[in-house]
Design a protein that fits this description.
- The chain contains four helices and no strands.
- The protein is elongated.
- Helix 1 crosses helix 4.
- By secondary structure, it is mostly helical.
Length: about 90
Amino acid sequence: MSDERQSRVRAAATWITRLSTVLDAAVDDLPVLWRQVVMARALTHGDDQEVAEWLGFTLEHERDILVRARAVVRARLDQARTGGAR
């Protein structure tokens, strides 16, 4: 592997590690109920009806929480990517 390619691979690995850290922190900082919805959706591979029933929410409430949580996480990732506020 060329030196240039090795350098690009190292830079990509560093970036992935940084984004992973930001993602973990963003999810950890969510309100508890929001975090529960995000994690439950990940565990059920996106079955929103199952998550809503499991957590005792209406489907609309579960979806609303998920939309808000994703927006917060997305903003944190964008902030990390651009180096500042969006």
